[in-house]
Amino acid sequence: MRMSRAGLAAIAFSLALNTTCPAAADDVAEKGRAILEAHKSAVVTLAIVLNQKVSFGGGSSRDSEAKLEATGTVISPEGLIIMSLSQTDPSSIMEAMMAASGRGANVEMETEVRDIKIMLGDGTEVPAEVILRDKDLDMAFVRPKVKPAAAFTFVDIQDAGTPDYLDQIITLNRLGQVAGREHGVSVERIQAIVKRPRTLYLPGNDPTQTGLGSPAFTLDGKFVGVFLLRVVAGQTTQSMFGGGAQNIATVVVPASDIAEGAQQAPKYPE
What residues form DSSP beta bridges with 47? Predict the structure, then answer.
């Protein structure tokens, strides 16, 4: 039986896909590994000790201490680091979530950073401090308490890229203690782009090791931004399919906003 031209074309297309897809995947992997090698030293672990005070309905408060580790991205040779504010001040997220549920007036939470250290790849721990906060964009800027004698490896935030819908991006992360704080690298896709009131990139829902404070790059190595939290105060809504609250999302805050925030950070005294 003679096969139609449409049938032959379909077979040829299928064979082409089977031939080119592995090559394309290998190309993305090679680019991802190159970005990892170029920038992994600028992705650091921050060891944080928090003092937390919570009170309910104006009654007695409960004090506690919390120790956590977070990922940060070094963006200057002096060791300026951007990280998620929610990981140094979870009260900002808690307040928004409680307000959304209508219970904000009954709960008060205060958080103080008692200690923060930059954990470098060679095991060195550098005492640091939070020097600037931006609640709206969930940005916290951290730097060493003493101006470092040697320059830090950093990501050039001026060498920026702007991905489009469904573009692949490479993200870098520092894993937890259970994984020896090794660097992780993931491939994400841009699912949506928010353009008002400011640009934000939303990654897809595929689970990866990408965490808050992780930098993102285009496949050609341009800096896209950093993964942070976006919280919108208001009534909490649920997905009809049983998903979580719709007023909180992980987003990529673009390089331009990070650069603007970094310009406001205090400088070391001369």
Answer: 69, 117
pLDDT band at 242 (very low <50, low <70, confident <90, very high): very low
Asked if 110 contacts 200 with a C-beta cutoff of 8 angstroms, the reply is no
127 C-beta neighbours (distance < 10 Å), count: 11
**Contact present, 192 and 250 (Cβ < 8 Å):** no
Burial of 183 (0-12, 13-18, 19+ CB in 10 A): buried
> In terms of pLDDT, which residue wins out, 94 or 180?
180
CA–CA distance, 68 with 140 (Å, rounded to integer): 16
Distance from C-alpha of 25 to C-alpha of 44, rounded to nearest angstrom: 28
**CA 171 vs CA 79, 180, 208: distances in Å:** 20, 19, 10
Does the structure show a pLDDT above 50 at 225?
yes
- Please indicate whether residue 243 or residue 228 has the higher confidence score (pLDDT): 228
Q: Which pTM value belongs to this model?
A: 0.83
